[in-house]
Amino acid sequence: MGYLPKIVLCLPLTNGAALEPFVEDCLRDKVALIAVVGDGCAEIEERIDWIIVGDGSDKSRFIVTTSHPGETVDEVMEFANFWEGEEGYEGVQKVML
Prior knowledge:
The protein is α/β, with parallel strands linked by helices. It is 34% helix and 20% strand.
């Protein structure tokens, strides 16, 4: 089973090397949103953005990313739950790497 359409990525990362494969899996699974929460979330969101964009030649590589400094996991789960992408983007999954 793949990832749900909306992801809350909880920091800290216990395995930094897992970030790039995670993002590639999210692209494969057509994840619409990755919301990052925890210490250093803005930096991790930026790393995710660079992984997604790559060299910029593949316009199909797109996921909305957000960072939530100073917010709790519950607050970000609620944000993700109410975030509306396109039709059919139901379900939020909390992920720890």
